[in-house]
Amino acid sequence: MTSETEAVITLKPEIEDLVPSELLLRQAAASSRLTGGEPEVTASFPKVLRGRLDRFFADQNLSPKADSAMWIKIAAGLAVLAGGWIALYALRPNAWVFVALYVLGGLAQTFLLLNIAHDSNHNAISSAPSVNKTLNYVFDLCGISSYMWRILHHRGHHSCVNVHGEDDALTGRGILRFTPHEPRKPLQRFQHIYALFLYAIFSLDYVFVRDFECFFFPTHEYLRRTRHPAREYVILFAGKAFYLTYMLILPVLVLGKSPLLVAVAFVLVHLIIGLSVALVFQTTHTIDSTYFPAGRGEFENGVYHIFATTADYATESPLVSWLTGGLNHHIVHHLCPFVCHTHYAPLTRIVKQTAEEFGIAYRQHPTMTRAVWHHLILLKQLGNQDSFE
Predict the structure, then answer these.
(1) Contact 196, 275 (CB under 8 A)
(2) Which of 62, 185, 222, 245 makes the best surface tag, with the fewest CB within 10 Å?
(3) Which of 55, 119, 11 is nearest to 338 (CA)?
(4) pTM score of the predicted model
(5) Which whole-number Å values give the CA distances from 387 to 183, 225, 288, 292, in the listed order?
(6) What is the pLDDT of residues 46-97, one digit of tens each?
(7) Are 307 and 362 in contact (CB under 8 A)?
(8) Nearest-10 Cα torsion for 188, 114, 215, 236
(9) Residue 136 and residue 128: Cα distance in Å, rounded?
(10) Among 111, 109, 124, which Cα is nearest to 66's?
(11) CB atoms within 10 A of CB 385
């Protein structure tokens, strides 16, 4: 792998991810090259897979960080978002065109969240921490605390995928049941029907409730023990104020649009963002073929944990990969979270081949539609059964 300076995750979790950090993996790869490595015929599946993924970059002298395609995506996403808002104030359009341009900005926000904010959160865009940190503020630009999302995503997901009581992605607040280890409630018999409606308000929940709840009324034990820096409280309120000002207040005061029209456009944008982002993530872990471990230490190696709890979809579709920020290649993302998503497609082919050689189950769906269907099947099963094999 290239010898560029490693980017260290800004907020180090108290419990490491299921796979070693980028720095440890590079040190292990260097050590293996010096000692001649372990013959693949006697090596374990995790070691062989890790060696092959590492050699992909070393053999081609590629950086695992952003390539030209990624920088084009970053520029395009930011240009569409800025262009949409500039057009609103330059053209001062009628109600229908206003809503269309407003929604265009919402689509740009969705694209930025999936493609730029998520990668920057993992320090996958640049070896310079300052670049990743700056781009991570895309979350705040979209009304979500980048600081809190970083904690929840690393400590509350990557280190405990599909573990009940720890994985934040399994939090259904008693309305949705995502794991067989959670008690079932009568209302959840219908969760496969109403889930999509709740997903549609996912981002509204983050903007107005979830961030404040995690800061001031945390439910996770690790959040209760965390002492948040004073600057993060300032950024939380400043970020929310900035977001609500440019999304709600300025269109009314400067453009003279009715509060009702702006509110309708605002809600429409969040229905798009919420449903899109929720389905992109939910279809990678909570489907009827993934496993829900009883605890973090159930597997002898974190790589086996990832393969048991994670699924891919539409990996042969460049369009889906482009729109979802490569998150349809989700197994590779969990194996190499520090790698920019524009490298995921060839890495996924390595994962598939190696898993087949070792007889390790590789979960995938040919299309996102099929993945959504199997997510709803799981919700129906969990809503009607206390437990299932």
Answers:
(1) yes
(2) 245
(3) 119
(4) 0.89
(5) 9, 32, 13, 11
(6) 999 999 999 999 999 999 999 999 999 999 999 999 999 999 999 999 999 9
(7) yes
(8) -140
(9) 13
(10) 124
(11) 11
